[in-house]
Design goal:
With 409 residues, the chain is of the alpha+beta class. 68% of the residues lie in helices and 9% in strands. It has nine helices and four strands. Helix 1 packs parallel to helix 9 (362-397) and helix 4 packs antiparallel against helix 7.
Length: 409
């Protein structure tokens, strides 16, 4: 009995200490690629780009010629007139420039959309890895609690310990059962979030590939801040400023009114006379009639510039906060790995060897195993928080999933 129990405890801790060999499952890159096919937000991007290109084509079209046919006095006099509208003040060029700026804005919006979806997929993916790793450790903790309860029950029946110890062991077992149900719920919720992020309900039941990354390297905060200008969100705001400026330029051309050249062929049936006329239509008192529109367009430019400046300040502060959170998570994971986990492993190894030599009872082995599992569970939580913090920093810098999430449709 003594050796078999020792084998059980050793096997439990071996499972806790060694990463399990995972079968081929859904990788992160595959999840991102599937999101590119499944998310309607991604599928809409090519349509939006085609719409923007269509607006550029339409903006480049010149005004159509007009034909005016007029008859008077029951065909005694007739006139056929061609009207040639002539745009002045660079209206067509300004209109095309505005449409091109709108297309660039659509592209910037698409980049932010891909970035956000990639961020959602990555966060949900690592959340599932963390939840499942924690669930496996919680299962081992329940197994230990059950073994502990059985051992205490045997000692109570043998009269070696007080019956109150059996009650305590039962409470510990029930607590471990509740922890397992909580961990099971966390896995289900994390998988639901992943399925929503990918846009495919099949992901709920698919195995994932890989483990939580254990890299605790802390990036230089100054280097991170220097990369803030590459943020897709800031580039989007820059495009919005450009759109407002081109709209103002287009509105400025409206103060110059268009003219229309007119060429007519006239015929009088009674006099048998025909003649041609040439004329021009010129709007009168047209200057300054779009003052309100110009004022509104100017205010829109100023508002967009202020929003861009405010966003730069806000994103810099958010990046500093996210970088601080990343540093704290990395330090916590490093401390848990180098001190807490190592200490728990050494304590378990000592008790394990003492049990083999008959110096410690089996309950001490179970206690040491439980402490080790608790340390690994805490370390897993720290790795999960570290992964999420790293993704938050990448999201602010515009690095999450942009290369993987493409317009696949």
């Amino acid at each position: 009995m003594r050796l078999s129990r020792f084998s059980v405890a050793g096997g439990i801790c071996a499972l806790a200490l060694l990463p399990t060999a995972s079968a081929r499952g859904l990788s992160l890159e595959e999840a991102l690629a599937r999101a590119a096919l499944s998310r309607f937000e991604i599928a809409a991007i090519p349509r939006e780009i085609r719409a923007g290109e269509g607006r550029i084509t339409q903006a480049a079209i010149k005004p159509a010629l007009e034909l005016d046919f007029e008859v008077q006095n029951v065909f005694e006099e007739s006139k056929v007139e061609m009207i040639f509208p002539h745009e002045r003040g660079g209206k067509r060029d300004a209109r095309v420039a505005s449409a091109r700026a709108g297309l660039e804005l659509v592209g910037a919006q698409a980049d932010v959309r891909r970035l956000e979806i990639g961020h959602q997929v990555r966060k949900a993916y690592f959340a599932v890895l963390a939840a499942e790793q924690a669930f496996a450790l919680t299962e081992e903790s329940l197994s230990l609690a059950r073994s502990f309860a059985d051992t205490v029950a045997e000692k109570v029946r043998a009269g070696a310990v007080s019956p109150i110890e059996e009650t305590r062991a039962a409470v510990r077992l029930h607590g471990a059962s509740a922890d397992l149900e909580r961990a099971r719920r966390e896995v289900a919720l994390a998988r639901a979030d992943l399925a929503l992020a990918v846009g495919d309900p099949v992901v709920r039941s698919e195995a994932l590939e890989g483990h939580l990354p254990e890299d605790t390297t802390i990036p230089d905060p100054a280097a991170l801040t220097a990369q803030i200008d590459g943020s897709s969100d800031l580039k989007l705001l820059e495009r919005e400023v450009l759109v407002r400026r081109t709209a103002l330029a287009e509105e400025s051309t409206q103060d110059t009114r268009d003219i229309a050249w007119r060429v007519a062929a006239n015929y009088n049936r009674l006099d048998q006379e025909a003649w041609a006329t040439v004329g021009v239509t010129i709007p009168l008192f047209a200057a300054g009639r779009n003052r309100g529109a110009l004022a509104a367009a100017t205010a829109d430019v100023e508002r967009a510039e202020l929003e861009h400046a405010a966003a730069q300040r806000r994103f810099t502060a958010e990046l500093e906060r996210a970088a601080a959170g990343l540093q704290a998570s990395a330090r916590e994971a490093a401390i848990l790995r180098s001190s807490v986990l190592v200490g728990a492993e050494q304590a378990f190894a000592t008790v394990q060897e003492g049990y083999r030599l008959g110096k410690f009872p089996y309950l001490d082995v179970l206690d040491a195993s439980e402490v080790l599992l608790a340390a690994r569970l805490q370390y897993t939580g720290a790795l999960g928080a570290l992964a999420q913090a790293r993704l938050d920093v990448d999201r602010l810098l515009g690095k999450t999933g942009v290369s993987s999430i493409t317009s696949a449709r």
